[in-house]
Write a structure and sequence with these properties.
The chain is α/β, with parallel strands linked by helices. 23% of the residues lie in helices and 13% in strands. The protein is globular.
Length: 245
Amino acid sequence: MSSLIERFRAMNSQAKAVTVVGIVVVVLAVVLGVSAAMGGGGDEATTTTVGETTTTLVPPPAPLTGVPVDDPAILERAAVGVKIGNNVEARPQSGLDSADIVYEEEVEGRVTRFLAVFHSEAPDLVGPIRSVRLMDPFIFNPFDGLFVFSGGDQVGNRRARLQELGINFLREEELANAGARTLDPNHGNGVRPNILFADVQRLWEVSANQEAPPQMFSYLDEGEAFQGEPANSVTVPVGSGGFNP
């Protein structure tokens, strides 16, 4: 049987022309059919644009400040409370500006000390660390965290109060055993406890099995205005001597 090409060559000129026209018509019909199936043809093509929905996730707030934190793991760690001196030899203190909450207490000799609570931020070092007072267990108890001080729990009922409230605490000797103690002989007068500091990151490792602190205050929602009169400062006299923190 001769091939299609040989049969085409054997045709006369008129037959060849008719055949070529027929092939062109068939090809055009196929092309137009495919175009119609794809929405082509004489109609203009339509473009559908699907709008994108953008969702902005607001980081969760820290329970002790109400300020959003970028790392959710921070919210899972325990609060760490550290007793910090405020006598002349203790200054300048380290880490107070990183604390979420700072309590100032009047102690003997018209001297104050701080109980600084750390949770959302971590300073390199905190201190100098001073001794516990009877009021401290009651102040720190709601945080349900780790309380750090240099000693003094053997005086009066201080240790009994810590134990009754179930507060997990570390003194200087436990700080050393945990690898969280730093002694700076060049600080203050160079005498312990004014040279005693702690590594807060290491303290969080020690308190890894403890729960995060509860929310302590009510916070405004974003864009919500505080209702009240503005003030630049607050003075709170404490004690019979009119001590002003």
